[in-house]
Amino acid sequence: MDVFLARRTSPHSFLKKTDGQLPPGIDMLEVQEVPLGAPSLQSKLEACEYIVNVGTDKSQGEIKAAIDSLMQAEQLPWQHMRDTGPRRYDLRALIEDLRLMSWEDGNCTLGMRLKSGAKGSGRPEQVALALGFTEHPTSIHRTKLFLADR
Q1: Cβ contacts of residue 11 below 8 Å, gap of 6+?
Q2: What are phi and psi of 31, to 5 degrees?
Q3: Which among 80, 83, 82, 85 is positioned nearest to 123, based on CA atoms?
């Protein structure tokens, strides 16, 4: 995360002062001081990795076939509604990786790496819908961020 302070403090001091103020399960591992003119973290974001759980009546084979078909597609025209109207784009271009991690009767876990940036961001719930799941994912857990080196 980007944090702007009213006055300068050392990264070590900032880490010590904020450590006990974070919610349980959220740990700050490192703090770095960056110049005010440096690009924001959001502008450097290139992709996100997710673990997605979704209920299903599909067999394991049907899910694997749907994943293979989607990954082999050259394009996947998509649209979603925004306040300003429909936004149309190629959902396939936003999917870097997609795999079935586990399957049990009635539930499956998908792993996916989706592009995220100024040209568009992949959304796990849209990928699940594109795979033919009729239920909204029961959980979406973002596990990793990929930042550009610029």
Answers
A1: 31, 32, 33
A2: -130, 135
A3: 80
Whats the size of the chain, residue-wise?
Answer: 150
Tally of structural domains, the chain: 1
Per residue in 116-130, pLDDT (tens digit) is 987 788 999 999 999
- C-beta separation of 28 from 18 below 8 A: yes
Report yes or no on 25 lying in a domain: no
Q: Is residue 31 part of a domain?
A: no
- What CATH number is attached to the domain comprising 131? 3.30.70.3190
Q: List C-alpha distances in Å: 69 to 26, 32, 130.
A: 37, 43, 11
CA 104 centroid distance within chain:
24
- Rounding to the nearest 10 degrees, give the CA dihedral for residues 85, 98, 100, 137: -20
Question: Does 9 fall in a domain?
Answer: no
Q: Which tens digits make up the pLDDT trace of 27-58?
A: 888 888 888 888 877 788 899 999 999 999 99
